[in-house]
Write a structure and sequence with these properties.
Chain A is α/β, with parallel strands linked by helices. Chain A is built from 13 helices and 8 strands. Classes of the chains: A alpha/beta, B mainly alpha.
């Protein structure tokens, strides 16, 4: 099976660990990942103002690029890209007038977009196409004894219309964690916002959110917290530096992309995990559990 | 806090502008407070999400446009998911930001960001921050 892949800006630098671990995992599962030969920034946030059509151009252009490769679906890893691409797609599908205006504006494109590309998150590909049962059969290193708190954040599940699981209590990552042989830990902050882009000009708010989210996971016994968004990853991992300054009693906890755990369980080499990109080193706990 | 109501404020085109930009019916809100109860950012806010809707219904333009809250909201959509009346509160708050941003009243001044504020964060953070906080 082949999948068209849209990386987005951060997967190529700060979140290279997310990309490399995903590509290795999908290859192990027999999937050929084909990055769009040409792609542009999705805009990172879906434009909420009703009259603001211009900001839907960037996501829609990526869907045209997908059609140019004769594919009818596009997979993303980043939760922000997923949300922006999928919401823009839904907006033009439900609003032919907007779609018409957008197509007219992009008159130089060879393809007129018709709302006919499906935007998929990697988790949907794993659950609905590859199937968790098939993944279970490919596990070479079960993550025995590792307690994992799965953090969804906002944009995989909200708004409900585009979310990939239950809006209040998603469980897809817990199911996957169980398939990988680890122990999922439930905690009440799993869909609470990390304060997102406030990290640029108001990092103290992010530190406050990080403190509450991570101490909640720790109180339930988590060894690691997984994420699926490069901005959540930055806030929950790198902002632990600021968190400890604001809350001296705070104890560091490693943050991993769920794909890094998948890659370990599927036997990917350690260089695809790119632990050098982490602020809190996940190696000690993974060594202690005999996983690396 | 003293709030002054007037016929003039209630008839201000500001209310229609907010409704148009957000495509929400402000009068659908019956002040149950569920949005504020679930908002992860209320500890930082001066006007709570349910109050934002009430203020908007009453045309309290100045109070809303100078509030800290509209820049604290990170559009996490928890309020939208929980509103029993189906109001998209996050879109109303976006409309308030847009009213200021479209007058070139940027919240974040790019030229004032330090090298570490710009350089230590991933591209996704910078792009989304500037998309939400600058014109």
């Amino acid at each position: 099976m082949k999948v068209s892949y849209y990386p987005g800006c951060t997967l190529k630098n700060n979140a290279k660990n997310f990309e490399d671990s995903t590509i290795c995992s999908l290859n192990k599962l027999g999937i050929q990942v084909e990055e769009l030969p040409r792609w542009n920034c999705c805009g990172t946030v879906f434009s909420l103002a009703t009259d603001d059509l211009i900001h839907h151009l960037a996501p829609i252009r990526n869907l045209i690029r997908t059609k140019e490769t004769d594919s009818d679906s596009l997979m993303t890893l980043c939760a922000m890209c997923f949300n922006t691409l999928k919401r823009a797609n839904e907006r033009v599908k439900s609003d032919p007038d907007s779609l018409d205006k957008i197509n007219t504006f992009m008159y130089r494109e060879n393809i007129k977009y018709e709302g006919d590309v499906k935007v998929l998150h990697l988790l949907e590909l794993l659950r609905d196409e590859i199937k968790f049962e098939a993944i279970a059969q490919q596990i070479v290193k079960p993550l025995k004894g590792l307690k994992v708190a799965n953090y969804y954040g906002c944009l995989l599940v909200r708004p409900k219309e585009i979310g990939l699981d239950d809006v209040e209590n998603p469980t897809i990552l817990e199911t996957l964690t169980t398939v990988l042989g680890a122990d999922p830990i439930d905690f009440p902050y799993k869909t609470e916002c990390c304060a997102s882009y406030q990290t640029v000009d108001k990092p103290e708010i992010v530190a406050e959110r990080t403190y509450h989210i991570l101490t909640s996971a720790q109180s339930q016994g988590a060894d690691v917290v997984t994420v699926s968004c490069p901005l959540c990853a930055f806030n929950l991992d790198h902002r632990q530096k600021e968190t400890i300054k604001q809350y001296p009693e705070f104890k560091n906890i490693p943050i991993l992309y769920f794909t890094q755990l998948l890659a370990i369980a599927l036997g990917c080499p350690e260089d695809t995990l790119r632990f050098d990109l982490h602020y809190v080193d996940p190696k000690p706990i993974l060594k202690e559990k005999g996983l690396i | 806090m003293r709030i002054n109501l007037s016929k003039k404020k209630i008839k201000d085109p500001f209310i229609a502008k907010v409704e148009e930009l957000s495509s929400q019916n402000l009068l659908a809100c019956y002040q149950c407070g569920k949005c504020s109860a679930g908002c992860p950012a209320v500890s930082q806010m001066d006007i709570l999400p349910n109050q934002i809707i009430r203020y908007a219904q009453l045309g309290l333009k100045d109070d809303l446009l100078k509030s800290k809250s509209i820049w604290i909201c990170a559009s996490c959509f928890t309020c939208n998911a929980r509103c029993p009346k189906g109001i998209n509160i996050a879109e109303v708050i976006e409309a308030l930001r847009q009213i200021l941003l479209r007058n070139r009243e940027d919240h974040v001044k790019v030229e004032k960001l330090t090298d570490s504020e710009k350089g230590d964060v991933p591209p996704i953070a910078i792009i989304s921050n500037l998309r939400k906080f600058t014109s």
